[in-house]
């Protein structure tokens, strides 16, 4: 009779687990699933196998099972720093932020060497999401102490510093992040923006041009370079809008919350002024609906509520939030042109700031409206001067009130009302905007 020692059994189990990991990395999920099932049949309580099966379930789109399996693994063997960190990531996706924070803290407590850096960086990201800039700075610095060449930690630190108004320190930290991970678009974009804020325009221009040479035709870089050069295209390109908002979709709501974002509630107030108390009797389109933050506020007035957006990521979030009768992936000007006489109200909250000249989009809005229909939207305000609009280094446009009023009049709107608002805060400062509302001329 052949027997095996405990050491040999351990080697066999380790090799099988390593093979399962290799299969998962190669996206051979069915084969990995079969192998892990055999391992767990032989070793039902093996924490590593349960951990990997949890990661596999996540890859298969079975989120609840993945969280449960990794939780079971940690119950059997709590001292798994990497598993706690992975659990935290899964909990974030599930929207369980407080549970994720506890998981990351457990990861740090069980870590050895520099492996705590990943969890610390994740904690810093959560602190950023809550607007806790000093805590985010403190935790980021701990991660950097453990792993000095950690690009993500330097990036988190740079954001925390910038939001505290420490622009020069932020530039230094963000520059380090770019050097360590030069293809990180978000990090590079922030360091160039910081240079612009410091008045270092030539250096910023040089970095944009170098970036565009590395990535010819990149719509984000092209748009931001135009802003830095002082050029003002009529509107942001579809490619720019899709790229930026698809990448931003997952963190969009949390980011707006920390910016004290008020555009949806301001829009809803203007809708009440225009149509009176909610009666669920008008057809409404949310043009540039994003993640659907306006939906619950508009729904009481709407017998039919449509939304359109260029970003698939945003539309997925809007669909999850609910409230819309239909959602369309479309550029909003084109969409409105294809809906003649379909709506009683066109709403656009914090979206027309990606348009310069508003003539075409407001003409499209008028075309989509029934007689005496109305439009309500917000834009960022431009101080007095000769220009109708200006593209800022942020990639957004600012508009003169006179341009907004002229475009509404040209499109056939009457009863124009334009009032100053503060739709959000940014870098500790109020952003000045306009809330515009108008109705078509009565027949």
Description:
This protein has a domain at 251-440: 3-Layer(aba) Sandwich (Rossmann fold). Helix 17 links the parallel strand 1 and strand 2 (302-309). The chain contains 21 helices and nine strands. Strands 1, 2, 3, 4, 5, 6, 7, 8 and 9 form a nine-stranded mixed sheet that branches. 46% of the residues are buried. The protein is α/β, with parallel strands linked by helices. Helices cover 57% and strands 16% of the residues. It has helices at residues 6-25, 29-42, 47-59, 63-76, 81-93, 97-110, 116-129, 133-146, 151-163, 167-180, 185-197, 201-214, 219-229, 238-248, 252-258, 263-275, 295-298, 312-321, 332-337, 359-368, 401-410, and strands at residues 282-287, 302-309, 326-329, 343-348, 369-381, 389-391, 397-399, 413-426, 429-440.
Number of strands: 9
What proportion of the residues form beta strands (DSSP E)? Answer: 15-25%
Low-confidence stretches: 1-11
Residues in helix, %: 55-70%
Terminus-to-terminus distance: 98 Å
Content-based structural category: alpha/beta
Query: Could you name the CATH topology of the domain at 251-440?
Result: Rossmann fold
Summed over residues and divided by their number, the pLDDT gives a mean of 87
Q: CATH superfamily assignment of the domain at 251-440?
A: Vaccinia Virus protein VP39
CATH top-level class of the domain at 251-440: Alpha Beta
- Strand and helix order: HHHHHHHHHHHHHHHHEHEHEHEHEEEHEE
CATH architecture of the domain at 251-440: 3-Layer(aba) Sandwich
Largest pleated sheet: 9 strands, mixed
SS field, number of helical segments: 21
Quaternary structure type? single chain
- Cα Rg: 26 Å
**Anisotropy-based shape:** globular
